[in-house]
Write a structure and sequence with these properties.
Blueprint lengths: L3 E4 L3 H13 L3 E7 L6 H5 L2 E6 L10 H11 L3 E3 L9 H9 L3 E2 L4 H8 L1 H10 L15 H11 L3 E5 L8 E4 L5 H16 L4 E5 L5 E10 L4 E13 L2 E7 L6 H17 L3 E11 L2 E8 L6 H8 L3 H9 L16 E8 L1 E2 L4 E2 L2 E2 L2 E3 L6 E5 L6 E2 L6 E9 L2 H14 L1 E3 L5 H7 L3 H5 L6 H9 L1
Parallel strand pairs: 1-2, 1-4, 2-3, 4-5
Antiparallel strand pairs: 6-7, 6-8, 9-10, 9-12, 10-11, 11-14, 12-13, 14-21, 15-16, 17-20, 18-22, 19-21
Helix pairs in contact: 4-5, 7-8
Bound molecules: adenosine-5'-diphosphate.
Subunit structure: Acetyl-CoA carboxylase is a heterohexamer of biotin carboxyl carrier protein, biotin carboxylase and the two subunits of carboxyl transferase in a 2:2 complex.
Protein name: Biotin carboxylase
GO molecular function: ATP binding; biotin carboxylase activity; metal ion binding
């Protein structure tokens, strides 16, 4: 096993990795920007190294600084968390070239899945059902219009390099196509430096269902069921649950097996998520994320496994500690993403936390890097905590969520907590009757 690993991240996910490593007897090195000198991950890790100034581009995204920190500290492996360098194939290659271990899949797998067109082609060839759409990239507006007419509207124009909901534009009718095509392209160019786009049939009322997979890199892989992440704002998840309230055990077994077989066939290593839109019982692949997801704790809760521990074990060359038959679902879990954002516009709300009180008790997990007196810097993501509840069934999980939202205190900045207090009262949330469009509509009507 590794003696020491470096965590190339910050915030709650850096703490999450420290916790798993510590339980395994693995020492941790935190890296941080000057703005994060007082951050919780720096305090909790065994060692810490300042790697640059506040902007992420000069610190958490600085490959030379992170490699140097490994060499100075003697860390043997790097856990990337999510975001930052977690899906950067070039980084993985550089890590390996320095005889260090990347805790995650290979550079090749990251590259293939990081490009949504090649990801879709690969998955299709592996027998995974995909959203109907263009074969590969769409070179120009004429081709886009021809395809739209052939497929029938509405269609969605998406950036192959896309992520975080950017570079995605809906064309409801043929008249929208020119605008959708041009804006998707220019947004993609600006955000990702790659303006290649492709076209998909726009699904009108799907749920976002994603399958957690895990592979050992040697042809063995399992699935850990699905998460329903349909409650989204601007294509970004805000509330996630497992198991999916609208997925039957038969559907789970079938799509799960398809996904596990697909990743086993490519010798995938570590944690991955295969995302689908699900409508009328049919699954349509949209993308694969080759990393740990923000919402992984709901899966951990219902399966009773530690995915980060498993990632570290497999990266160190150990076999997976579970086989498919060992994995059974116990109860129901829900996560809500607590962001430092001001409603109704969700504008960032950095600042000093004057009082923080985490909820507790049976079936409650609070993953957060907050503490009393902490100042949330304005430079990074607005996620400041994840409240995860686990119950014997969905009803109990919801009652627990309701109870926890009454206990939690985050004073000093605006947060999305009031949004969740309102959502748990909603009939559709209580019955699980929602699609990917439900929240946007609710926000329009209620905020
Ligand atoms: P990103 O990588 O930017 O998150 P995804 O391809 O994962 O982009 O899509 C994010 C979200 O956008 C989905 O969860 C869904 O809400 C919406 N979306 C994507 N593709 C489609 C589609 N073909 N039809 C309807 N909604 C879609």
């Amino acid at each position: 096993m590794f003696k020491k690993i470096l965590i190339a991240n910050r915030g709650e996910i850096a703490l999450r990795v420290v916790r798993a490593a510590r339980e395994m007897g693995v020492a941790t090195v935190a890296v941080h920007s000057t703005a994060d000198a007082d951050a919780m991950h720096v305090r909790m890790a065994d060692e810490s190294i300042c790697i640059g100034p506040a902007p992420g581009s000069q610190s958490y995204l600085s490959i030379p600084a992170i490699i140097s920190a490994c060499e100075i500290s003697g860390a043997e492996a790097i856990h990337p968390g999510y975001g930052f360098l977690s899906e950067n194939a070039q980084f993985v290659q550089i890590v390996q070239d320095h005889d260090l271990t990347f805790i995650g899949p290979t550079a090749d797998h990251i590259r293939v899945m990081g490009d949504k067109i090649t990801a879709k082609e690969t998955m299709k060839n592996l027998g995974v059902p995909v959203v109907p759409g263009s074969e590969g990239g769409v070179p120009d507006l004429e081709a886009a219009q021809a395809l739209g007419d052939e497929m029938g509207y509405p269609v969605i124009v998406k950036a192959t390099a896309g992520g975080g909901g950017r570079g995605m534009k809906l064309a409801r009718t043929a008249a929208d196509m020119a605008n959708a095509f041009r804006t998707a392209r220019s947004e993609a160019k600006a955000a990702f430096g790659n303006d290649e786009v492709y076209i998909e049939k726009y699904l009108g009322r799907p749920r976002h269902i994603e399958v957690q997979v895990f592979g050992d890199g040697k042809g063995n892989a399992v699935h850990l069921g699905e998460r329903d992440c349909s409650l989204q704002r601007r294509h970004q998840k805000v509330f996630e649950e497992a198991p999916g309230p609208a997925i039957t055990p038969e559907q789970r077994a079938e799509i799960g097996r398809t996904c596990a077989e697909a990743v086993a066939a490519i010798n995938y290593a570590g944690a991955g998520t295969i995302e689908f839109l699900c409508e009328d019982g049919n699954f349509y692949f949209i993308e694969m994320n080759t990393r740990l997801q923000v919402e992984h704790p709901v899966t951990e809760a219902i399966f009773g496994v530690d995915l980060v521990r498993e990632q570290i074990r497999v990266a160190a060359g150990y076999p997976m500690s579970f086989a498919q038959d060992d994995l059974t679902i116990n109860g129901h879990a829900i996560e809500v993403r607590i962001n430092a954002e001001k409603l109704p516009n969700f504008s960032p709300s950095p600042g000093r936390i004057t009082q923080y009180h985490a909820p507790g008790g049976l079936g409650v997990r609070m993953d957060s890097a907050l503490y009393d007196g902490y100042s949330i810097p304005p430079y990074y993501d607005s996620l400041i905590g994840k409240l995860i509840v686990h119950g014997r069934d969905r009803r109990e999980a919801l009652a627990r969520l309701h109870r926890c939202l009454g206990e939690i205190i985050v004073d000093g900045v605006d947060t999305t907590i009031p949004l969740f207090r309102a959502l748990v009262e909603e009939q559709d949330i209580q019955t699980g009757d929602y699609t990917i469009h439900w929240l946007e509509k609710w926000l329009e009507e209620n905020l």
